[in-house]
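Supplementary Methods S3. Input chains for the assembly prediction are listed below.
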Amino acid sequence: MSDNSRRGFLGTAAAALAGIAIAPGIRLIEIAAARAPEEAASGKVRWGMLIDTAKCATGCTDCVTACNKENGLHDTGRPRTDAQWIRKIELKDLRSGRQHSAPVMCQHCAEPPCVDVCPTGASFKRADGIVLVDKHTCIGCRYCVMACPYKARSFVHENLADQRPAVPRGKGTVEGCTLCVHKIDRGDGTTACAEACKAAGHEAILFGDLNNPQSAISQRLREIPSVQLRSDLRLNTGVRYSGV
Amino acid sequence: MASIVHRELQANGLRFWGPLLAIGAVIAAGFAAFVHMETNGHFVTGMDNQTVWGLPHVFAVFLIVAASGALNVASVASVFGRAAYKPLAPLSALVALALLAGGLAILAADLGRPDRLVVAMTHFNFKSIFALNMFLYSGFFAIVGVYLWFMMERRMNAFSGAAGLAAFVWRIVLTTGTGSIFGFLVAREAYDSALLGPSFVVYSLAYGTAAFLVVLDLAWRWEGRAAEMETLARLGRLLATLVAASLYMTAAFHLTKLYMTRYHGVEAFLLAQGGVYTAFFWLGQIAIGGVAPLVLIYSPKTGGTRAGVIGAAVLVVLGGIAQMYVTIVGAQAWPQPIFPGWQETSTFFDGQIHPYAPSAAETALALGGVALAVALIAVGIKVLRFLPDPCTDSSSQPPTSLPVRPR
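Predicted structure tokens for the full assembly:
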């Protein structure tokens, strides 16, 4: 074997070995639809949720409990100032008496009013549709709380303890549902509330990519009628509801 | 007007320092409240996640809006060429700057992260009315500052008209911007109206003129100087016109809201069933801040008297604060309809009227901002020549060529 061919062989072998070593990782990333840490969020996906109120059980608050645990929200005994990223709204039609229950959180609008009004740009929308607050540039003016049609934002009214490392919070800043962005970025492919709802056997919360026609959420949205909350405002929400 | 001589406040010793110390104590209380709120967090206030803007914002927005209107006297003198107002024009500019500073101080002190004020000045989202207002406020300081300099520096007097015009245009835009902070909040049923911008402009003219009258009267009293009745009567009539215009804007705002069925609920709440908000609207904004001042100024018995005009001005200020309370707090008390047509209940108080009671801390913060504005005016008139000398003040002379009726 000449030097050249030996070098060629070694090169090909090294490349093949490297390929074998890296491929499972790449495959894993593909499977979990996760991004590499250095890769920016992509506009090709739009994360969203479909909430089927027919499946949502009145009195069940597993989604709320799971959200609080996942994001390190604690009960301070002061409900009026405590942050609530997700809450269950009990609904009643006064004419027919029909009752419903629905979890409500940040609707991750495509045209978010909170982002429009934020003076510093701390409220922002990621390329994949997730609406977040940059805790380093939020000055705590609460204009976004005034502007949100869904009452989805909370202001942190007190000093914080026992924070979750993946979910930084800050006294004097505004926060809200992050769509469990830390779970999405590490490839969990779901949110704490959706997981809890599934574990409770309701499966009222379906998480997925609204841009992927093959995703379960897109297929479901094609099958059943759904609405956007306050659709009159034309905010193009990432969270949709069926049954109301 | 070259004959007009301005001089410093003629009050010395305890007569000057006594009131200033009292004002200083209120500022200190406001600062202590600020430290208390920022150390513990906003749970020590009456504000919560339902009512996120409270009494500090009521006073801050009132002061900011009044600041713009306080420049009326200067604008009437330089833009509309009314010579009789000219002697008081520099004081009117000082009051405008001080009120704006007081209002902004409250807003900054109420921020969740006041330490990040520099972030607010270096990161801008130009779609935000708030961000635009930051330019409008700092621009107001700059333009009115230059205007003041041109008025007070004899060599620059020739340019004061142009600066006055710039300040006039700027303040109209500024107040439109302040009103639009609320008007563009489509998510809240009490707002969502393009009329709020222009309404705030008209309100500002009345509140600012009233605040200026109160300051002028206090300055005279501080010196122990007799009131110049012609000046008071003239400003009183101007105030009456602006109060009447404010009442018209209020009527137009609510009538247009009432035309739309979807707003009947919130309008019924604010105008009829809202308890303290309904009382603040009818008793505060309309009766005390609107009708009573008109009666005081147009009544033959009180119209030409110091008590009548200054009383009217004080009532307009009180009515203005009531208006801000209804506009800012009342609007948040009304629940947001997330599922229109459904009755909503939740642990986050959906579907409920939100109660609000200001704590001592936020009350002290709000009053501290007012005191800061008063202190700035007091120090300003003490160290610089803002007050027209009565011996040379043409506004105290018989109104031979003076306009009797405001435009």
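The longest strand of chain A covers residues 86-92. Chain A has seven helices and nine strands.
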